[in-house]
């Protein structure tokens, strides 16, 4: 079945339908990872977006147990070639069946390199995936202009708290769309991790007397999370050590008077170099974000930059002055991606008084 991708700048790509055949409008973003497509699909940070995979062949090892949440989250999936055969001793099925099962529409057979160049040059934009060969551009463009991701944190957070048992430090993990490997990275280091819904009151978390607080990754514009930011202000005022990743990093910055802005096309992939400003060492990191903290609006008496992106100089982390708080924009838990910065979990445990 034919399928079409229509961008809001008027560009149209024709390919073949994969997954569900339903029509969808979403924000079109690209990911440069060469592997780990299942982790990308199940990353809650992609809620409200359709993902373009720049690597040309997707699906060759099928669907395995390497899921970062219980289900996939992108609105749509765009690839150059979807593998017709999946071959891996851990494979439980094909990516085509996976997309159909979760009603995710997609398109294959288009020039994803050309599409990525458009998104890099013109910036992230909205698009529509449709199998309707008689689509009307006159009707489609107003719908594309109108679409926004909105407050998608409420869509991806857990419904109730749960716990991963451990004999070490007790960590409260605020779930704004957390990837499973964040809790697992802490649990593997002996921590008892309690995962809380995004709108949990700060008083409830502090009443449970955690040794540390983790603020997770998540989707959307951080400025849409006004109520959550107010609770993070209260957590900041406590003396509990805090480590934040991605959206959590942005929310902590906004809670302390900094600003954030939307990037032209964001950072999404497993090959982004970040520099530790304290040591000068460069790490290759996994990233997935379209917003970034504006350090020009950052009060140095509150926080100072700790990491920067080597490619474009944007902020990749903050260290809070006089507080046991540090935050990073990238993903030290990787999955998919390099594990170069996994040591940050060890740093967090040391901040809580633990030993590694």
Annotate the secondary structure layout.
Layout: E1 2-7, E2 12-19, E3 24-31, H1 37-41, E4 49-53, E5 57-58, E6 76-78, E7 81-82, H2 95-101, E8 105-108, H3 112-122, E9 125-130, H4 137-146, H5 153-156, E10 162-164, E11 170-175, H6 180-187, E12 192-197, H7 202-207, E13 212-215, H8 226-237, E14 242-245, H9 247-255, E15 259-276, E16 282-294, E17 303-309, E18 315-320, E19 325-328, H10 343-351
Parallel strand pairs: 3-4, 4-6, 5-7, 6-8, 11-12, 11-13, 13-14, 14-19
Antiparallel strand pairs: 1-2, 1-9, 2-8, 3-9, 10-12, 15-16, 15-17, 17-18, 18-19
Helix pairs in contact: 8-9
**Total of helices:** 10
**Gap from first CA to last CA:** 55 Å
The CATH class label of the largest domain is Alpha Beta
- Topology, number of strands: 19
Instruction: Enumerate the spans where pLDDT stays under 50 for 5 or more consecutive residues.
Output: none
Strand order, largest beta sheet: 10-12-11-13-14-19-18-17-15-16
Radius of gyration: 20 Å
Oligomeric status of the shown chains? single chain
H and E order:
EEEHEEEEHEHEHHEEHEHEHEHEEEEEH
The CATH topology of the largest domain turns out to be Rossmann fold
Structural class: alpha/beta
Please name the CATH architecture of the largest domain.
Answer: 3-Layer(aba) Sandwich
Strand content: 25-35%
């Amino acid at each position: 079945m034919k399928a079409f991708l229509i961008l809001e700048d008027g560009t149209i790509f024709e390919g073949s339908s994969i997954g569900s055949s339903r029509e969808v409008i979403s924000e079109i973003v690209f990911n440069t990872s060469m592997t780990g497509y299942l982790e990308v699909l199940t990353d809650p940070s992609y809620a409200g977006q359709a993902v373009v995979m720049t690597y040309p062949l997707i699906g060759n090892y099928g669907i395995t147990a390497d899921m970062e949440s219980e289900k996939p989250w992108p609105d749509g999936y765009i690839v150059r070639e979807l593998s017709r055969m999946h071959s891996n001793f851990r494979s439980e099925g094909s990516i085509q069946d996976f997309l159909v099962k979760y009603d995710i529409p997609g398109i294959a057979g288009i020039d994803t390199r050309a599409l990525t160049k458009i998104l890099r040059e013109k910036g992230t934009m909205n698009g529509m995936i449709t199998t309707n060969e008689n689509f009307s551009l006159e009707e489609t463009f107003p719908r594309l202009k109108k679409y926004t991701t909105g407050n998608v944190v409420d869509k991806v957070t857990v419904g109730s708290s749960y716990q991963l048992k451990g004999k070490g430090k007790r960590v409260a993990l605020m779930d704004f769309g957390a990837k499973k490997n964040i809790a697992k990275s802490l649990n593997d280091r002996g921590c008892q991790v309690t995962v809380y819904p995004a709108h949990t009151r700060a008083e409830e978390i502090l009443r449970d007397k955690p040794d540390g607080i983790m603020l997770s990754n998540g989707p959307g514009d951080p400025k849409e999370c006004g109520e959550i930011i107010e609770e993070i202000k209260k957590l900041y005022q406590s003396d509990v050590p805090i480590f934040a990743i991605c959206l959590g990093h942005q929310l902590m910055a906004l809670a302390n008077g900094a600003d954030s802005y939307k990037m032209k096309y964001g950072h999404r992939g497993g090959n982004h170099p970040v520099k530790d400003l304290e040591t000068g060492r460069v790490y290759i990191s996994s990233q997935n974000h379209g917003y970034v903290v504006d350090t020009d609006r950052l009060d140095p008496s509150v926080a100072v930059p700790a990491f920067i992106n080597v490619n474009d100089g944007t902020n990749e982390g903050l260290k809070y002055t006089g507080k046991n708080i540090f935050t990073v924009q990238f993903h030290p838990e990787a999955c998919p991606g390099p594990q170069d910065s996994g040591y940050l979990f060890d740093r967090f445990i040391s901040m809580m008084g633990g030993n590694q």
